[in-house]
Amino acid sequence: MNLKKKSTIQITIFLFTILVTLTYSLYLKDLINFKFLSFGDLNPYGGWSELKSAFIDVSYRFRGISKSTALTASILVSSLFGGRFFCGFMCPIGALQDFFTFIGSKLNIKKINIKNNINSKLIILKYFVFIAGLVLSILGLGSLVSPYSPWLAFLNISMGFTLTPGTFILIAILLFSLTIPRIFCRYLCPLGAFQSLMYAVGFLKIKSSSSCKSCSYCLKECPVDIKNPYESGEVSPECISCLKCMDRSCIRGDYSYSINIFNRRISKKSYIALSLLIFISIYAFFPLINPSAASQEMSDFTTLKDGSYIGTGLGFGGPIRIELRINDGEIKTIEVLSHRESTGYYEEVFKMKSREIIESQSLNIDAVSGATASSKAFFSAVKSAVSQSLEYKEQE
Predict the structure, then answer these.
(1) Could you read off the pLDDT of 253-303 as tens digits, one per residue?
(2) Cβ burial, residue 196 (10 Å; 0-12/13-18/19+)
(3) Residues of the domain holding 370
(4) Within this chain, do residues 200 and 336 fall inside the same structural domain, yes or no?
C-alpha cells in the first residue's frame, strides 16, 4: 500500500470534521439554517453514556440509537475486526500528531527515543486514564473530566478561541509530536486504551512471517515504537494499524508482516476497505433504529398563568436554572440563568430547543443527539417552571 492512501483517508476525514464543526458553529449563530452533524454526534463516548444511563438511571427509556452511540459502536466493532484502525486512519487528533511529526522531520528536529523500560511504564498511563474516566462517569462526575479533553477542545475551535485545560493539553500534544510520534495515542488516550483491549480479544492479528528472524528492521519507523513481535509472531495490541511495517521491504526480499482475520491472510487493500465499510455502515445505519422520538413526555400546554417562573433540572455538569416568562397564556421567552454544561453541547439545547418550545408551545421536542443529559435537564427545568404556572392557574 502506498502510504499516500493512508494520508488521503486521514486528510479527508480531518477536513470533513472541520467542515462539520464550522457548519455547526454557523448554524448555532443563525447564519445558516442547516447542519451536517452536531458536536454531540462526534462524541466517541456516547455509547458509554447510554449504557450507563440504562443501568443506573431509573427514568431511562430506550428511544433509539443516537449518532454518538453509533460512533461508539463503530469504533468497538471495527476494533474487533480491524484493530486500532480508527487510531491509524481516521482519528483527527492522530492525523494532527502525524502532521506535526512530519513537520518536525522537515525541520530536522531530532526524535526522542524513549528507553524500553520507561516506555513500557508510560504505556500503562492511558489505561489508568481510561479506568479513571469510567469510574468518574459512574459516580456522576464526568463533567470534571470533559474540560481536559483535547478532542472536545479541538471541536470547539470553531466556536471561538475558548481556553480550557483541554486546549493547553492539545497544544502540548502537538508540540511534543514534533519529536515524539503519536505521544497521545501511546500514553494518554483512553479511546486508544479501549481499542487496544478490543484488539487483544478481537479477530484481527498482524503477524510476522514464519521466515522472520525478528531483526525488527520492518518496525524501524513504527510510530508507537514497537520493537519486536511476540514469540507467536503477533505484534503488540499497542499497534495503531498504520501498516508502516508492511510497507518496508524485508531485507530478505519479501514482506515480513501480514494481516490475518480469523487466521486467514487478507490484503492491505481488503483490510482498509473492510474496516471502512464496518465503521461507516454502523455509524450511518444504526441511528435509523429509532422506535420513538427522544422527547420529553408531556402534553401540549395551552392554559398557563402569566408571570415569570424559575425551573431547575440536573444536567451533565450540575443544575441548570432557567427563567420562563409567560404572557397571554403563552411561553414568550426562556432564559438560562446558570449552568455548568460543556461547551459545544449546551448551545444547541439552550438556543434551538428554546425556540422550538416557544414556537410549538409544547415540550414534545426531540432531544439533541449526543447531548441527551443536557437536553433532559433543560426540558425538566422548563417542565418545572410550567408546572408552577399551571398550579397558580388552578388556584384561581
Answers:
(1) 665 788 999 989 999 999 999 999 999 999 999 988 766 544 444 445 667
(2) buried
(3) 307-395
(4) no
